[in-house]
Each structure stands twice: as C-alpha cells, then as structure tokens.
Amino acid sequence: MVARCGEVRVWHWAHIGRLLCDPWWENETEWHRSWKNQFPDDCQEIVHSAEDGERHIADVKTVGGWVIEFQHSYIKPEERRSREGFYPKLIWVVNGTRRKKDRAQLIRAWNDGVAIGENSLVRKVYLDDCGLLREWADSNAPIFFDLGETEALWWLFAKTNNGWAYIHRFSRAQFIEWHRSTATEAARQFTEFVTEMLPKLIANYESRPRAQPFRDPLQLRRPLRGFRF
Questions:
Q1: Which structural domain, as residue segments, surrounds residue 177?
Q2: 95-129: b (≥16 Cβ within 10 Å) or e
Q3: How many CB atoms sit inside 10 A of residue 167's CB?
Q4: What's the number of domains the chain is made of?
Q5: Is 98 domain-assigned?
Q6: 21 within some domain
Q7: Do residues 96 and 198 lie in contact, with contact meaning Cβ atoms separated by under 8 Å?
Q8: What burial class does residue 33 get, using C-beta atoms within 10 Å of its C-beta: 0-12 exposed, 13-18 middle, 19+ buried?
Q9: Domain for residue 89, yes or no?
Q10: For residues 109 and 141, is the Cβ–Cβ distance under 8 A?
Q11: Per-residue pLDDT for the chain (229 aa), expressed as one digit of tens each?
Q12: Suppose 96 and one of 66, 124, 145, 190 were both cysteines; which one would form an S-S bond, judging by CB atoms 3.0 to 4.6 Å apart?
C-alpha cells in the first residue's frame, strides 16, 4: 500500500501498481440504494479509469452520458470539485434529510423567495437563509436536493454574485423518467433544459428593466413531452 496525500483528492491508502480502490467511495445507506435501484442494473456502478490508473465508480451513468452521484454524507469542497472535474456531465442528488435543520431552512428560503415571473416553480432565494444551499452553491453541476418528498426534488441550478440563487421545484417522477429512459429524446430534453432553457430564463429575468413585467420564456414554449410545470 502507498499513501496518497495530495490536495485534489481526499487522502487515502492506494494499492501499489494497479490502483483498485476508489477514494470517492462511501458506505451505502438505504437512501443511497433506494435511489440507485430506480435505474436499470446495467446503468449502475459504472467504472471509469483516471489517467493515473485509479478507478472511480459512478453510481449511475445514463444513456445520455450523464453521471448521477447520490450523496448522503457531507463532502469536502475539494473532493466535490475533483468529481465535477472528472465527470464532465455530472448530476448530484443530495440527501437533504440527513440534518434536521436543512429541510426546514430550505423550505423557508423557498417560501420567502421571489417567484420568477409566471413560473411559480422557479424562485430566487437568499443563500444565507439555508446552510445546505450555501454548502453547494459553488458547484457548477446540476444539484437536486431530496427532502424526502414523494413528488418533488429541489433543483439548485444557478447562483448570483450577490448572495442569491435560483431554485426549481422539480418533478421527482420526471427526473427518474428522463434518466432511466433508453430513448435519446429523453436525454436530449434534459440536456436542453440544463444548457438552454433554464439559463435563458435566468438571463431574461436578470436583464429585464425593473419597471417592466417579466415574461417567462418557459411559459411561451410548448411544454416538453411528458413534462408539466
């Protein structure tokens, strides 16, 4: 064994020669297993090899190339950034019920937030109102908080430079359907949502003259097949 004590990945013991351990691995909880089992077996535990031979095992990799990591425990920022750098199309699903205060804080931040135009499912919220949001606000990947609700996930998808962030109350069933599907159309819809529609929504809202009403571009388009706000 050899010690790996760099600044990019968490410190760990690695096998000499062929590195077999995944330093990003954590003990699976029932929450973790329940989420993975929403997806086909052949999409789970997909092995990726780093340039140094170290293996990283993605919880789920979809047909569209998205890697989904289910995060139950606290993760250090440097490890989070390492994973996001390693997987170019990474989605986090974070257990928001691990600490009792997180759910209450996030819901309160949502209730106190500003609805974005006619779209009541997207709101601008203040980061200081929720510790969970502050912990994840620097991430560049899509982040879905699981607050234990059967119908919804809470999607943190952008932050501003003045302490605010945008949250989308998103259908849990739609998230699962899009990512477990073998159809390329489903993958395309999610990618379009991440890279085009939501950024356009934010840009339009932030650039509007404050005296003018905001017209939500998501409301002006025909809804994506199988999805409703």
A1: 28-220
A2: bbebeeebbebbeebeeebeebbebebbbbbebeb
A3: 24
A4: 1
A5: yes
A6: no
A7: no
A8: exposed
A9: yes
A10: no
A11: 434 443 444 444 443 333 456 666 677 889 999 999 999 999 999 988 877 777 889 999 998 899 999 999 999 999 999 999 999 899 999 999 999 899 999 999 999 999 887 767 899 999 998 999 999 998 989 999 999 999 999 999 878 778 899 999 999 999 999 999 888 888 889 999 899 988 888 888 888 776 454 444 444 333 344 444 3
A12: 145
pTM of this prediction?
0.80
The token pair that represents 162 in the structure block? 């003045």
In 3D space, the residue among 103, 108, 101, 81 whose CA is nearest the CA of residue 92 turns out to be 81
Q: Which two tokens stand for residue 15?
A: 């096998």
Answer yes or no: is 3 within a domain: no
